[in-house]
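We modelled the chain as a single entity of 378 amino acids. Its sequence is:
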Amino acid sequence: MTLNKEYQELRDMAAKFADVEVAPIAAQIDHEELIPKTLIDKLKEMGFFGIYIPEEYGGAGLDYISYAIIMEELSRGCASTGVLISAHNSLCNYPILKFGTDEQKKKYLPKLATGEHIGCFCLSEPNAGSDAGALTTFAEDKGDYFEISGTKNFITNGKEAKIAVLFAKTEKTKDHKGMSAFIIETDWEGFSVQKCEDKLGIKGSSTAQISLEKVKVPKENLLGALGKGFRIGLETLDGGRIGIASQALGIGEAAFRYAKKYAMERIQFGKPLSDLQAIQFMLADMSTKLHASRLMILNASQLKDEGERYSKESAQAKLFASEAAMWITTKAIQVLGGAGYCKEYPVERHFRDAKITEIYEGTSEIQRLVIAHNELTS
């Protein structure tokens, strides 16, 4: 797939921003476990918090191919920065844009589009990860409002978020039936952050446990129809997987570029490492996996933009790109040898960042289930 001039210019712009503003402080972000406010302000100025929110709500009004391109380049610069933007756009902006009422869109999208409010997606629980239907957070109908109590786990952007798309049971069932979605304002009484996880990678991104103690949610904050939360969650994650696939691609690309540069400069046995066939083969496989990942991501994005079914393709892109990123970052360390194991060099960070892409927004095993289901029922 060849990108047209507009997409090429967008990639050049995003790549320049990543190279100048993001990559130089990526190690600092990892070490301090914090994305600095100065960078967040620059992300706001670039319009990255409202990539495909329509201009009428203050967004950039771009398509999903554009989103994938931006996500790849930002994540190449810093995976933590990439997932901040990915979770905000894919998991909070999108379901409000797709399933929200006109009033909900007018109320919430403008501040989400500018980054004044950061968004998160509250689905997972301590005992409900891949088995989303097992969640126990319950929304009790109190007449004029719902009263929600429960605990949410592993919430990206959970510490900073002002707006949450949250899922709870509105019927006491033992499966996904009776699940509904809500728009929650995190400063409402009873909503609190219990802790932030100390993680292996993407350390600049907050991953929080959220507690809800009898949070009163107005009836007008029900997102979509009552009892349709599971479908809303699945469709949201279909698009979110494109974002995570793009993140994985960016991480893999960063590791590949550094390994290639190192191999061309490092002298062993009287010649550059890149002259050794063993190293050449690793670099060749890295390049091929990156190219295949990019094509799969662009294909899934194009299908989404055209209104076609894309669930299988987004799962394939996420599965392939995330496993490719893990393989590429492992081999990048191998190319650098002992140096690759040291924090002085970035590939060990890329390795740590890559692993989560095989897990969040659906593990590799869940992606295989989605792909198989689509193949066997089509």
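As a brief sanity check on the tokenised model: Residues 114 and 345 are 34 Å apart (CA to CA). The chain has three domains: 5-114, 119-227, 230-377.
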